[in-house]
Design goal:
The complex is a heterodimer of chains A (560) and B (177). Chain A contains 18 helices and 21 strands. With 560 residues, chain A is of the alpha+beta class. In chain A, the strands form 4 sheets. In chain A, strands 16, 17, 18, 19, 20 and 21 form a 6-stranded mixed β-sheet that branches. Chain A is globular, with a radius of gyration of 23 Å. Chain B has a single domain, classed as TIM Barrel. Chain B is 23% helix and 20% strand. Chain B is globular, with a radius of gyration of 18 Å. The interface between A and B is large, with 45 and 42 residues.
């Protein structure tokens, strides 16, 4: 993975010094709440219900074992001994007191971590494929490009006070695992007919209040120009994006208002001036960064491991974990392991300090000292020998990190919701818990098969509910928490926005509602048909009919 | 006289920034003698008269861009950019464009809601003069605020202050270092 040189380190250290002084001035009354707000947000610091929420950046989701240990230590020392991984591959503290945050920043800087631009109206963390470098369907490793762009965006003086937040994702595989279609800019690495590397560029995608799938602004921009092209997009957005209404301020609104053709024309007009300028990338710089992402020292192994197959045949629990949590690897004899942070009874994405320390140990022992975060809020050990999977599974099971539910109904994507977040209209974690509790039969879960449930506690859609096969959105109705359900959303190459099935539900109804949706699917499905495919084939009506059959006459309508 | 930071030092600047009162016509604005900065609309309405004076500058509101002044860049005595709110980042692009596209090399003032926490970014975008709101900082705080100019000493990306990005300015060590 990328390692800082003296320049990277100096910038992060300078940030720590700057923020320490800003916190001092704020506490001394020299920096008002209003003036401090954008400053603290661009350092990942929100004022929350109970305590500040503090978000740490994990560029494209990569973590070294020493970084995992540092996070474990910080959570133990300054928080309540656990952390929360987010849907943008970041990690959050929930209980650290305001005034210690600069100390945490300083600690993070010692292991090349930071919280720079993890919130605020600026360019946020770059997200990418958690299986980058190891996936069989990878065309081009997205990580060097994400790192190059991360550096360009970090402390960019012109784009720190944009109309609204700005999220960029990079994909380099056939199957998009970075949800690039719902980002402000989605970058898809490609080769043209001449074999040259470049990017297909999507713009104006996003979830939130107005979910929109990104539109293609360019089919192919050669790699040398990716920074100048992004700069042109950002400059047009910074100048002309709406600033009068924060709900209308994302770039998707500008793109929709102008139309993609007019927006493209404006960007190209701007780009004509900056193209071939100093920000044009050089071969040397790309090589310098790409070298950090060379393959680790893989051993030449046989494709199959006899012991591994023996364990699968002998141990049903192991076999079930392998089926859901182990993924194919590009190298013979290796596999990628997903450690589930979706154990029923634990808030999705949460992990304790003790577990983090264990993951660090396993990363060192089994996976070249690295782990990754997925946007589905699980962890990945990307490079595990097949011969060691059984040992790793036993350890992970003991630690509560081997729930065999990746991609199943209980692998719920969920924001912190009203339990923690001051933006939320409703709680989300208890909904996830109630659904997980309802579906506690593993055989039934496997029978239901691949399905994605996403829960957001408000419009801001941190739980990506619009792209969940089943999406659940918390809404506020006269001070009461209600939940709106969408069906048919999906991520991947053909991302779609789910459709609302009807009036929202009270919290207590939610497990029943999900059960009824699942029962409808079981009754209607063709053999081997996945949930999302059944929804696409039969539409929403059969689900609506079932869910509202007994409810309609009695219930309060809570449309929002 | 306004206390400003100009080229890294605290000085008193005597530019007077004129604003149009409600109901007043920009074109009919009374422009006194002396070093004054007029709204863009005033300049555009009376460019020849004002340019002939040699001591009249122009200021941009947040929603105004440098395109409108393209033909007059060499005729204005100074340019200022208003920051109606410090979270309104349009002025950064205005400054960068004036410096990199329109060839403006004269004094460039950021005024309004200008805070020390933005000094570094403002200067990197090409402002050489920073004029916080009158009374925003005590003398001691203003002195201390100078330090914020150097919040980041070797930034990654190209800007007005660093015309080359870091990867072109220096030979960075790679993985083998």
């Amino acid at each position: 993975m990328y390692r800082y040189d003296a320049y990277d380190q100096k910038l992060v250290d300078e940030r720590v010094a700057q923020f320490r002084d800003q916190m001092r001035r704020h506490l001394a009354g020299e920096l008002s709440d209003d003036e401090f707000r954008p400053v603290r947000l661009q350092n990942g610091l929100y004022i929350q219900r109970h305590a500040p929420m503090y978000r740490i950046s994990i560029p494209y989701g990569h973590l070294a074992s020493r970084q995992l240990r540092k996070l474990a230590y910080l959570a133990r020392t300054y928080d309540k001994g656990y952390l929360h991984f987010t849907t943008r591959q970041n990690v959050q503290f929930n209980w650290a007191p305001l005034e210690v945050i600069p100390e945490i920043c300083a600690e993070l800087a010692t292991v090349q971590l930071h919280s720079i631009q993890t919130s605020g109206n600026c360019i946020r963390n770059f997200t990418s494929d958690p299986f980058a470098g190891v996936a069989g369907d990878e065309l081009i490793d997205p990580r060097p490009w994400a790192e190059i762009l991360r550096q360009w965006a970090t402390f960019h003086p012109e784009f720190a006070y944009l109309p609204r937040k700005f999220k960029i994702a990079v994909n380099g595989a056939k199957e998009d695992r970075a949800v690039i279609q719902v980002h402000d800019i989605g970058l898809d690495l490609k080769k043209n007919e001449a074999g040259e590397i470049g990017f297909r560029i999507l713009v104006g995608g996003g979830l939130g209040r107005t979910p929109i799938i990104g539109r293609e602004i360019e089919a192919f921009i050669p790699w040398q120009h990716i920074i100048t092209y992004c700069e042109a997009i950002l400059r047009v957005y910074n100048r002309y994006g709406r600033r009068d209404n924060s709900f209308k301020a994302r770039i998707k609104i500008l793109v929709s208002a102008l139309g993609i053709d007019e927006f493209r024309w404006q960007v190209r007009e701007e780009w004509a001036h900056v193209k071939d300028g100093p920000n044009t990338l050089t071969v040397d710089e790309v090589h310098r960064v790409a070298d950090f992402f060379d393959d680790p020292a893989y051993e030449a192994l046989p494709a199959d491991d006899v012991g591994y197959h023996h364990h699968i045949a002998e141990d049903l629990a192991f076999a079930s974990w392998v089926k859901r949590n182990v993924r194919a690897h590009k190298k013979p004899g290796y596999a990628s392991v997903v450690l589930s942070l979706k154990k029923p009874g634990v808030a999705p994405g949460d992990i304790t300090s003790d577990q983090l320390d264990l993951v660090a140990d396993w990363a060192d022992r089994f996976s070249f000292g690295e782990a990754r975060v997925t946007h589905e809020q699980n962890l990945v050990l990307a490079d595990v020998r097949k011969s060691e999977l059984y040992t790793l599974w036993q350890l992970a099971r003991k630690a509560g990190l081997a729930t065999p539910n990746i991609g199943l109904l209980t692998d719920i994507i969920c924001c912190p919701g009203g339990d923690f977040c001051s933006l939320a209209n409703a709680k989300s974690i208890p909904i996830a818990a109630a659904i997980q509790e309802r579906f506690d039969d593993l055989d039934y879960l496997h029978d239901i098969g691949d399905i994605e449930i996403n829960i957001s506690g408000c419009m801001n859609a941190c739980g990506h509910h619009h792209v969940g096969h089943i999406g659940i959105l918390g809404v506020d109705k006269n001070g009461e928490e209600w939940y709106q359900v969408t069906l048919g959303g999906s991520q991947g190459n053909h991302a779609t926005i789910g459709k609302v099935i009807g009036p929202s539900f009270a919290r207590a109804e939610m497990p029943d509602v999900i059960s009824e949706i699942i029962e409808t699917y079981i009754e209607e499905r063709h053999e081997d048909e996945l949930f999302i495919d059944t929804v696409r084939r039969i539409g929403l009506e059969p689900f609506k009919t079932r869910v509202y059959a007994d409810r309609q006459p009695h219930r309060k309508v809570a449309n929002v | 006289m306004s206390k400003v930071i100009k080229n890294g030092r605290i000085v008193n600047d005597d530019w007077q920034i004129l604003t149009v009162a409600e109901g007043e016509e920009a074109a009919a604005l009374s422009v006194p003698a002396g070093r004054v900065i007029v709204p863009l609309a005033t300049w555009l309405a009376r460019r020849d008269e004002l340019a002939a004076r040699g001591d009249v500058g122009v200021w941009f509101a947040g929603n105004e861009g440098p395109e409108a002044l393209a033909d007059d860049i060499g005729r204005v005595a100074v340019i200022a950019v208003s920051f109606p709110k410090f979270v309104d980042g349009r002025g950064y692009s205005t400054a960068a464009l004036l410096r990199t596209r329109y060839g403006y090399t004269g004094q460039l003032i950021a005024f309004g809601e200008v805070l020390r926490d933005q000094f570094n970014y403002l200067t990197r975008c090409g402002f050489d003069t920073l004029q916080p709101r009158e009374g925003r900082y005590t003398d001691a705080q203003f002195d201390a605020a100078i330090a914020s100019l150097d919040d980041y000493t070797e930034p990654y990306q190209a800007s007005v202050l660093h015309p080359q990005p870091l990867f072109r300015r220096i030979a960075r060590a790679g993985v083998k270092a």
